[in-house]
Amino acid sequence: NGAIFIQSLREDDPSLKITPQDRARNVIDIANYFGSLPEYHNIPLIVLGHSEGALVAIIACSELSSCKGIVCLSMPGLPGVEYASERAKLELKRMGMSDQVIDRYVRFLNQLYIISSSNADDQLVLAKISKLQIEFSESVNDKEFIQLLKVQQPLLISKWMRSFLRLDPAQYFSKLSCPVLLIYGKNDEFLDPELNSKTLLSAASQRPEGSVNITILSSHDHFLMKGNYQMENGNAIQEKHGRVEKTILDWLSTKLRKS
Q1: Is 0.85 surpassed by the pTM of this model?
Q2: Least confident range of 37-51, 142-156, 185-199
Q3: Position 1 confidence tier, pLDDT thresholds 50, 70, 90
Q4: I want to staple 71 with a disulfide (CB 3.0 to 4.6 A). Which of 48, 104, 190, 192 is the partner?
Q5: How far is the C-alpha of 217 from the C-alpha of 135, rounded, in Å?
């Protein structure tokens, strides 16, 4: 089969200078190029994406009639600002903060996300975010969180993040005509698998039964890995676990046989 895989981005990724829609256009161009080659005419096109890369996959395939199936790994299903706030809440919880502190910090971060998602120009957004960060930093005594804010500032004014925060995945998901497989890990550190998958399933409520399949792996995390692993150059290094690959291959064999 012909397959295109779209990975998620790191914070230093040069792709942050483009939007998810720009990246989706790149996927469409690649698919159309291979589709124009005679040796690929009878080969089904499958698009796979992980995390934000899965969002790019559904944006591309909402316009790509040649796509015969999409595999979305750990895909955000909530609107951008809501997803970012949920992710921040989970990350702060992992840092050991109390529910009261988390609530205060997430409400503040939500303000930053709303500003970032606005249509204002970059300089105005930067000025508003900087002002809020200074005011908030003066009101708390948490060096770790203040440092986190400083690291986040370039990301919040990036072209990718500002566009991502405006996106509602359900808007694109509802336009898909090909089968979709959603795979999540129950131990995902960055999103709630049940909440995000149900949001996407609701968007696909008008589609034929069985056209969207959801698998939540009981022992896996956001990277769909099981157990402990090490990070090397921003990538997770761990012995592969066959459950994810088997889930994808079983689904592909069923869907492609029907097509």
Answers
A1: yes
A2: 142-156
A3: low
A4: 48
A5: 42
Give yes or no for a contact between 70 and 180, defined as CB atoms under 8 angstroms apart: yes
Handedness of CA 119, 120, 123, 124 (dihedral sign): negative
**Cα separations in angstroms, 79 against 82, 83, 164, 165, 219:** 5, 6, 9, 7, 26
* Entry field: residues in the chain: 259
Please spell the DSSP secondary structure of 221-257, one letter per residue: -TTS-BS--EEETTEEE----HHHHHHHHHHHHHHHH
Q: Are 170 and 205 in contact (CB under 8 A)?
A: no
Contact between 53 and 24 (Cβ < 8 Å)? no
- C-alpha distances in angstroms, 169 versus 8, 231, 249? 15, 28, 25
Query: Distance between CA 169 and CA 235 in Å, rounded?
Result: 25
Q: Which residues contact 221 (CB under 8 A, 6 or more apart)?
A: 185, 187, 188, 189
d(CA 237, CA 243): 17
Classify residue 208 as left (phi > 0), alpha (psi -120 to 50) or beta: beta
Phi then psi for residue 62, to 5 deg, are -70, -15
C-alpha closest to that of 3 among 42, 50, 48, 57:
48
Are 75 and 193 in contact by the 8 Å Cβ rule? The answer is: no
Whether 214 contacts 202, CB under 8 Å: no
DSSP 220: B
Give the position of tokens 């809501």: 82
How many other C-beta atoms are found inside a 10 Å radius of the C-beta of residue 10?
Answer: 11
